[in-house]
Specification:
The complex is a heterodimer. Chain A has helices at 49-57, 79-84, 102-114, 128-140, 156-169, 186-197, 212-218, 236-241, 243-253, and strands at residues 11-20, 23-33, 38-42, 64-69, 72-73, 87-90, 174-178, 204-208, 221-226, 229-234. By secondary structure, chain A is an alpha/beta fold. Chain A has a domain at 11-95 and 172-253: Rossmann fold, CATH 3.40.50. Chain B has a single domain, classed as ABC transporter involved in vitamin B12 uptake, BtuC, CATH 1.10.3470. Classes of the chains: A alpha/beta, B mainly alpha.
């Protein structure tokens, strides 16, 4: 539109607004992610981070504004459609299929992604390629040994990893990680970070987290959200040096 | 070890069904009723057990199937059992598609109330349209031509017995395929966590509507088979009582495993037959007691109770 020669962003939010009644939760947010970018979104509690993620993923509809996914206007597309177009996400509060095994959790995502969800008369067991891929993804997050365990029996930290594996199964262009390390003991956070860092290079990742250590070790750029609008965006060094960020966030948090 | 054991056990219920005929042919009519109800309960299991859609209006589709088959035959329009069964399935599937497309936009209690309403709506229509349905007296004089032109529906109920058993068997084979397919797995995904299903790209509403339509068509088949085997369609085939009853039978056996219906229905119906014969005034009291025991001691139904018992024994033996 502005005739820039730069590469088209893989995810773009333009003038996003969201209010619940008279409460404005997201205020004129503009943000774009390059292909393969490693971005973090931080902000104090109640800044509207999760709402913003929900607006991007399609769980919530914006009051006004647009979302573009790889150049396609998905503002009016629902979550399932956006997922098909390459939007993957994990949830702050683990959202899996508790009574199904780790393997089945991932298989479901693979089957939906491959468009097999309506196949009715062939045994799910006979889709060998998908099962191999599911094992591969479990291997990647180090959970192949618990492949046949139902997710509800797994420790929380492992459930968090399955969240990531399920999102990866969709072969997303954009991956929204909503506090992947939430509720995990500090000792195990490095494991999550390692896996997040090892994500395929062509996926643009937006990481939302409170853990400054995690964020600064992961991100190329950081966006700071305060009271629903973007306060500042910059490299980790710039953000760390920014007085306003210190005032509203770092100072308050430490 | 579990897998080989179940494969070995698989033909057992079917052999048992055949054995009852060989040993006690006088019970063929009761067994036929049981087969029809198992078929009906299995179709409900696709919704309740696999997709997590709890409905109290499944009789709407059962009754539709029964009346469509019954009216076609009573008027002498089409009396061939196979053809009327297919038409009954189509009709019930269409009714399910229509009701489902409205009801499935809601969830939980709202859905439950709407499902009750869907059943009552059709019940009242059938009740008022006495010219077509016979109203409260039921639809009389339903005579079907011989099955495949070969076997007449006789007074002793032999044809009905084998016909209903065959229909049940075919439905079971079909449903087992469906629940083990990627589609069936996705239904379990919706039951477990529909929000996550949406996030991985599943159009939940559409998926649930397909399941609802499928279950409706099979409920219609059960209704048609009942009309064909009894030569009569009662108004209560559309009743709330039947919708509730079949749900109780399913939960009694254990939902979400297809076999649950095979155990819950006979236990319930044989108890009903026995108790209603010996103690007709207190049947509802007994029904209440069965329900209480079920909820207090056997949450997952008879099957999961048996499973737990079996596992406990196995552990003792293994030790």
């Amino acid at each position: 539109m502005s005739g820039q020669m730069s590469e088209r962003p893989v995810l773009e939010a333009r003038g996003l607004n969201k209010s619940f009644g008279s409460v404005v939760v997201t205020r004129d947010v503009n943000m774009s992610l390059r292909r393969g970018e490693r971005r973090a979104l931080i902000g104090p509690n109640g800044a509207g981070k999760t709402t913003f993620v929900n607006l991007l993923s399609g769980r919530l509809r914006p009051t006004s504004g647009e979302v573009f996914l790889d150049g396609v206007d998905v503002s009016r597309a629902d979550e399932a459609r956006r997922s098909k177009l390459g939007m993957g996400r994990t949830f702050q509060i683990t959202s899996l299929f508790p009574a199904l095994t780790a393997h089945e959790n991932i298989f479901l995502a693979l089957a939906e992604c491959a468009g097999f969800g309506l196949h009715m008369l062939r045994s799910a067991r006979s889709y060998g390629a998908l099962h191999d891929r599911a094992d591969e993804l479990l291997e990647k997050v180090g959970l192949l040994p618990v492949s046949a365990t139902t997710v509800q029996q797994l420790p929380y930290g492992q459930q968090r990893l399955i969240e990531i594996a399920v999102a990866l199964a969709l072969e997303p262009k954009v991956l929204l990680l909503d506090e992947p390390a939430a509720g995990i003991p500090t000792s195990e956070r490095d494991l999550i970070l390692d896996i997040v860092k090892a994500l395929p290079g062509d996926i643009a990742v937006l990481l939302i987290d409170h853990d400054m250590d995690l964020v600064f070790r992961f991100a190329e750029r950081i966006t700071v959200l305060v009271q629903g609008s973007i306060l500042v965006e910059g490299s980790p060094a710039e953000i760390a040096a920014d007085q306003r960020v210190r005032d509203v966030y770092l100072g308050e948090k430490s | 070890m579990g897998r080989t054991a179940t494969i070995w056990l698989e033909p057992l219920p079917w052999l048992l069904a055949l054995a009852t005929y060989a040993l006690a042919p006088q019970y063929a009519p009761l067994m036929t009723q049981i087969f029809v109800m198992i078929l009906f309960a299995m179709s409900l299991d696709l919704l309740v057990g696999y997709t997590g859609i709890v409905t109290l209006g499944h009789a709407a589709q059962f009754g539709t199937g029964a009346y469509v088959a019954g009216i076609l035959a009573a008027r002498g329009w089409i009396t061939d059992p196979t053809l009327t069964a297919v038409l009954a399935m189509l009709a019930a599937g269409t009714v399910g598609l229509l009701f489902g497309s409205l009801m499935l936009r809601t969830k939980g209690l709202a859905f439950l109330m709407l499902s009750v309403a869907s059943g009552m709506l059709l019940y009242e229509i059938a009740n008022k349209a006495t010219g077509i349905t016979g109203g409260d007296d039921g639809l009389q004089g339903v005579v079907f031509s011989p099955l495949l032109g070969l076997w007449e529906f006789d007074f002793r109920g032999t044809t009905a017995f084998f016909y209903s058993l065959l229909m049940l068997f075919l439905t079971f084979i079909f449903l087992r395929r469906v629940v083990n397919s990627p589609f069936g797995w996705s239904l379990r995904g919706i039951r477990e966590n529909d929000l996550r299903m949406a996030a991985i790209g599943c159009q939940n509403y559409r998926r649930r509507l397909i399941a609802y339509t499928l279950a409706s068509a099979l409920a219609g088949l059960a209704g048609a088979v009942q009309a064909q085997c009894t030569g009569f369609v009662a108004l209560n085939s559309l009743s709330f009582e039947l919708s509730g009853g079949v749900l109780i039978m399913l939960i009694l056996g254990g939902s979400g495993r297809l076999y649950g219906a095979m155990f819950g229905v006979p236990i319930y119906m044989i108890a009903q037959d026995y108790l209603a014969k010996n103690d007709p005034t207190n049947w509802f009291l007994w029904q209440g007691i069965i329900l209480l025991i079920l909820v207090l001691f056997a949450r997952g139904g008879v099957l999961s109770l048996a499973e737990r018992g079996f596992q406990a024994c196995w552990r003792k033996v293994a030790r």
